[in-house]
Amino acid sequence: MALFVAFVCIVSWASTRACSYGNGGVPTVVHLYGSVHPPQSDGSAFAWFTAGFGETGLAWSTPTYTYPNTQSPDVLWYHNHALGLTRANLLGAYVIRNSAVDAPLGLPCGDEFDRVLMLADRSFYADGSIYMNYTGDNPNIHPQWQPEYFGEAITVNGKAWPFLAIARRRYRFRIINTSNASFFNLSLTNDLPFTVVGSDTNYLSKPITATSLLVSVAETFDVVIDFSESTTSEAELVNMALYSYMDGNAPNDLNGKVMKFVISPAKAKDESSVPVKLLDYLDVAEEEAVQRRYIMMCRVWSCHVAGVLCHGV
Ligand SMILES: [Cu+2]
Q1: Signal sequence: where (predicted)?
Q2: Domain with residues 100-280, CATH architecture
Q3: What separation in Å is there between the alpha carbon of 79 and the centre of ligand 1?
Q4: What is the pLDDT tens value at each position of the chain, 313 positions in all?
């Protein structure tokens, strides 16, 4: 399957010595988080291309990306990984379904009761358009290159502080932290717990109940919330994570609230359930490993380029 994503540039990226881009359009390359796919389809920050493949990055190799979709079903997500542009994200959820695995579990299903919540942090101008810093943090560094992005307000599926009308029943929410550098520590104001059934592209072996969820950057949590247990007719999903995490300020009016649920009586019987067990996984014994590999995560700074190269901020 080929996936092409249009990209709207909201960050200045004029060519400079520090900038590896030309002037033939906005660089784009898709990275699909958690996907099992050939390395040519991974979306390296240097595999970018412009419209019509007029210009391509050093690591570009193919116009078509292939995603086999043969892995365990759950939620993945994708965004533009072109070096220096990731914070100006166009992004989306990518749900892999397999009815042979999903259906026997009996979890809430269908578009109404199984929903994706893509969380992000964004800053806005007074007219509602997205604000991006065009001047940078350091006059010696081109403003395209910024180590991290922090927005003032939290958005869900692209909207700041939305509400969702729901019924008193179970819902499945696939929560994704799509922000560039912010963590979210989520809880509900009516004290309902989250029943976690999956995280980071896989079902858990059995559900875990939690009253708060710490969701780090790019992490996903697949949860069920049973609103039939709510003692209130409204509930806010709120954020308690320090901004920035872990040594920043306590959340404020802008980044402390995420979204609101408005709860109405259920119109039909809730046939969904949460099983005691989810999926069985093979135990992998460390002593059976045939090769030991070391993976280095590096953060590179220089006088010309400041950035996290492994993420293409
Ligand atoms: Cu990324």
Answers
A1: 1-18
A2: Sandwich (2.60)
A3: 6
A4: 333 333 333 444 433 333 456 667 889 999 999 999 999 999 999 999 999 999 999 999 999 999 999 999 999 999 999 988 888 778 999 999 999 999 999 999 999 999 999 999 999 999 999 998 878 777 888 887 887 889 999 999 999 999 999 999 999 999 999 999 999 999 999 999 999 999 999 999 999 999 999 999 999 999 999 999 999 999 999 999 998 888 899 999 999 999 999 999 999 999 999 999 999 998 889 899 999 999 988 776 654 444 444 444 4
Helix (H) or strand (E) holding 120, with range, is: strand 114-124
Ligand 1 center–CA 54 separation, angstroms: 23
The residue extents of the domains of the chain are 1-96, 100-280
Give the residue among 2, 66, 13, 5 at the shortest CA–CA distance from 312. 13
Report yes or no: 169 and 228 within 8 Å, Cβ to Cβ: yes
Q: Characterize the bridge pairing of strands 114-124 and 170-177.
A: parallel
Å from CA of 90 to ligand 1 middle: 11
- What is the CA(293)–ligand 1 centre distance, in A? 23
Output the CA 60–ligand 1 centroid distance in Å.
Answer: 17
Stated length of the chain: 313
Architecture per CATH, 1-96: Sandwich (2.60)
* 298 CA distance to ligand 1 middle (Å): 15
- What is the whole-number distance in angstroms between the Cα of residue 88 and the centre of ligand 1? 11
d(CA 172, CA 84): 34
Matching fold, domains 1-96 and 100-280: yes
Residue 10 CA to ligand 1 center (angstroms) comes to: 17
